[in-house]
Specification:
single chain; about 110 residues; alpha+beta; Naphthalene 1,2-dioxygenase Alpha Subunit, Chain A, domain 1; three-stranded antiparallel beta sheet; 2 helices; 3 strands; oxidoreductase; 3-ketosteroid-9-alpha-monooxygenase oxygenase component-like C-terminal domain-containing protein
Length: about 110
Amino acid sequence: MHLDFGFLGRGIVMQHITPEDAVQQRARFVMFAKTTAAFAKFYLLSEANHFERDVFIWTNKRYVKNPLYCKDDGPISKHRRWFSQFYTDNSPTLNKDGTLTNTPKSINDNDW
């Protein structure tokens, strides 16, 4: 994100998301700024706090096959139809206990 803080300066915040396993990711935030160190730290902590609040929403979401849409939802249904091409009957799904219904295979697996 390119940021303009007005008289306080400008900055760039980058998020680095790294998959750790099938359902876990590591998020890192880096900020480069021409502002005071105190303001940069405050802004970055605020950004991380907002991200953490989003994590609560992401971890409690559930799939609804035919959700209700409002006019401000945009082309979500079009995106869902397009994205469905990447799923098959053999695609892994997440069980309630956090395990996967089946383990995805890699071309590097020896048991093919």
